[in-house]
Amino acid sequence: MARTVAAFKVDYFQFLGPDGALIDSQHVPALARDFERLTELYTLMTLTRVFDKKAIALQRTGKLGTYASSLGHEAAHVAIGAAMAEEDCFAPMYREYGAQFYRGVKMSEVLLYWGGDERGNDFSAPRHDFAWCVPIATQCLHAAGAAMAYKLRGEARVAVSVVGDGGSSKGDFLEAINAASAWKLPLVLVIVNNQWAISVPRSKQNTASTLAQKGIAGGLPSIQVDGNDLIACLWAMDKAVKAAREGKGAFVIEMMTYRLGDHTTADDARRYRPQDEVDEAWAREPLVRLRKYLISEGAWDEQREEELLSECAEFVQEAADEYTNKVADDPQPVTAMFDYMFAELPHDLAEQREYAEKFPEDGGHH
Amino acid sequence: MAQITLIEGVTLALARAMKDDDSVVLLGEDIGVNGGVFRATAGLQESFGDERVIDTPLAEVMIAGLTVGMAAQGMKPVAEAQFCGFTMPMIDHIMCHAGRMRNRTRGRLSCPMVLRFPSGGGIHAPEHHSESPEALYAHMPGIRVVIPSSPSRAYGLLLAAIRDPDPVIFMEPKRIYRWQREEVIDDGEELPLDVCFTLRDGQDLTLVTWGAMIKETMQAADELEKKGVSVEVIDVATISPLDMDTIIESVERTGRCVIVQEAPRHCGVASEIAANLADAGIFNLLAPVKRVCGYDTVMPLYRNEMKYMPSVRRIVDAANQILEVS
Fold first, then answer.
1. Considering the domain boundaries, does residue A3 fall inside one?
2. Across chain A, what does the average pLDDT equal?
3. Among candidates B268, B269, B231, which has minimal Cα distance to B250?
4. Is residue B190 part of a domain?
5. Among residues B152, B183, B214, which one ends one of the domains?
6. With 60 as the cut, is the pLDDT of residue A205 above it?
7. DSSP H helical ranges for chain A
8. Contact call for A340 and B66, based on CB within 8 A
9. What are A206-227's pLDDT values in tens digits?
10. pLDDT tens, B107-123?
11. Residue A125 lies in a domain
12. Domain ends where: B183, B205, B227?
């Protein structure tokens, strides 16, 4: 005889459809009527996209190293940043610029990092956020550690981390869920599921019907949302961050989106994914639907859109100039590679530093 | 004053560090009620509570990642791994994050953590419990590597490691956890993390070692002394950064050096010391520098483990070879 000892379900939330209309105008969060907030976030989503285009152009013209595009992820990323308080801690992977801009990271800092200069990680704000994290999913555990620190010190702070659909296959992500569950940590783990881990599609990660259910397996409340619907993303984030701050423990949110661009500028997605899939994804992208919605509600118009685009172009150009001027006029000396290794330079490194100073320009520029 | 063992020196330092600084917390598997598999944390959860001495789920990667995250956010976590072999999955977080946090952020964040674990063989343990991976950690930029070999050095070096503003790998030679007793005063005095300890002064030969090999090395020194050889013995203790000044100064005086290490020879710390001696250009070197090491094989299961490790005979043999040269 068998009996069910546990049963689970994963709810999917979507409020704003791809056509820019509310799915069910009778059942929407208050946020859907907060046009001031929505236009503010739409502005940042647009800025992020304009920035992204510029960064790719800088890379293509040899002015920037490999860059990971955020194209198509703007709603998810901006919602993540917008739900967090300044004192909360963000542990990003490497393309969550929308979240970071909201929190105070400068566009020129993003460019510095991808431009091969560690000063890009010395964020002007917030000073306690983690740096970009290239080894997949390790950031989930750093966020869990931050959440642990806040909990032990009795601070009402929340740690938030992002992982991709590929990263959700890694042990670090699963161990972070487990830790958050065991200690009821103030942690929000967001899976930004963009369907592609470089060339490996979501279907090849595993056959689980959702990635959110991995959170449920570890004992965390977990939901899935339309990751191209800013309202759904922010509603979910607000709910999760609030619960975490109130000591109710951790949350997993899977945001369903699509990587419209290449993995990075070093990748060519045409090698492995069909163009009609990408074309179809463009019909669901996050900016157009929010703009249509705001216009239909009288909160936005074509003239404001034009003004916004030209303002964004101006801001982004300023940031690009700040970046190119910084690396040209104020490059890091050879000694910089030694000076931040330890609080106090050990004697062996001090010797190497002195030696390196004799060859300040060796290796040349490229 | 109490005579204590090396592992009791560890416990004493942990208690002292927690008393002195609220941000010091311990985490690991079975370290709470059970006091750790070797009892390094015995009684500490009782004294400091389960929010300072934290039993973790059984997940080494999680322990390492959590420790890095906590350290970057103002805590001073001291993580325990049960055995050296179980630290292998932790290396991602140690190498890719702990050692890079300060540099990566140009000093904005740091990682003041300690990962301590028993290392080395000789206690008849199962597979993966007996390795000496100090060279792996010493190769990682941004990481200090410390191995005490006496109760007082365990106390003083662990206190320094916990107070240090950067990550420290603290490897405890488990074979000598309870070998010797020594009077240790709990005065909160730390020892420097970048200085070797000269355990015995001599004129004819320098024996350099660290960790549990101190035992065989001191015994070899005794045998050689009986034959009229004056032997200097140096405990390296701080593998990274390496205090070559003390070693070079000694070898310049004695003209002969044997380096003893339990770990495999290839690319080991002994090789690094030998290379530094060569680089120093010691003109009064009287004989080749010798390394007596574990073999470049897998650490055998326990019936053969003592045959793997440098023995007193192998150390004396190497010493005799270079004493005959001049």
1. no
2. 97
3. B231
4. no
5. B183
6. yes
7. 35-60, 74-83, 97-103, 107-114, 138-153, 171-183, 213-217, 230-245, 275-282, 286-296, 302-329, 336-339, 347-356
8. no
9. 999 999 999 999 999 999 999 9
10. 999 999 999 999 999 99
11. yes
12. B183
SS3 label, residue B12: helix
Could you tell me if residue A2 is inside a domain? no
Residue A138 forms contact with B (CB below 8 Å)? yes
A143 touches chain B (CB under 8 A): yes
Q: What is the CATH number of the domain that holds A230?
A: 3.40.50.970
Residue with tokens 């990408």: A278
Of B59, B72, B142, the CB nearest to A341: B142
Tokens representing B233? 């013995």
Active site residue A270: no
| Cβ-nearest to B241 among A130, A146, A347 | A347
Total domains in chain A come to: 2
Residue ranges making up the domain that contains A237: 12-268+275-332
Query: What is the distance in angstroms between the Cα of B209 and the nearest Cα belonging to chain A?
Result: 20
Any B CB within 8 A of A352 CB = no
Is A259 labeled as catalytic in the residue annotation?
A: yes
Of residues A119, A182, A346, nearest to B57 (C-beta): A182
Establish if A74 belongs to a structural domain.
yes
User: Has residue A117 got a pLDDT over 80?
Assistant: yes
- Residues in B touching A152 (Cβ below 8 Å): 25, 51, 75
Could you tell me if B161 and B237 lie in one domain?
no
Q: Do B176 and B203 belong together in one domain?
A: no
| Pick from A121, A135, A178: CB nearest B106 | A121
| A-B contacts at Cβ under 8 angstroms | 137
What is the residue-wise DSSP string for B66-119? Answer: HHHHHHHTT-EEEEE-SSGGGGGGGHHHIIIIITTHHHHTTTSS----EEEEEE
Query: Which of A131, A148, A182 is closest, CB to CB, to B104?
Result: A131
Q: Which residues of B touch A341 (CB under 8 A)?
A: 102-103, 141-142
User: Nearest Cα to A31, choosing from A69, A75, A67?
Assistant: A75
Whether A148 sits inside 8 A of B106 (CB atoms) is: no
Which domain does B141 fall in, by range? 3-183
Catalytically active residues of B are 129
- Looking at the complex, report in whole angstroms how far the Cα of residue B223 sits from the nearest Cα belonging to chain A: 35
The reply to whether residue B62 touches residue A138, judged by beta carbons under 8 angstroms, is: no
Q: What is the strand order of the sheet A159-164 is part of? A: A12-13, A222-226, A251-256, A187-193, A159-164, A89-91
Q: What is the pLDDT of residues B185-202, one digit of tens each?
A: 999 999 999 999 999 999
* Active site (annotated) includes residue A258: no
| Together in a domain, B160 and B300 | no
Residue B239 sits in the same domain as residue B272? yes
C-alpha–C-alpha distance, residues A270 and A202, integer Å: 17
A349 in contact with B, Cβ within 8 Å: yes
My answer on whether A133 and A216 are in the same domain is yes
Q: Does the reported pTM lie above 0.90? A: yes
Beta carbons of A341 and B141 less than 8 Å apart:
yes
Size of chain A in residues: 366
3-class DSSP state of A252: strand
pLDDT (average), residues A136-162: 98
- What integer pLDDT is reported at residue B325 of this predicted model? 75
> Is it the case that residue A365 has pLDDT exceeding 80?
no
Instruction: Indicate whether B24 belongs to any domain.
Output: yes
The number of CA neighbours under 13 Å toward the Cβ of A26 is 0
Same-domain status, A328 and A343: no
Q: Is some CB atom of chain B closer than 8 A to the CB atom of A158?
A: no
Residue of A nearest to B95 (CA): A135
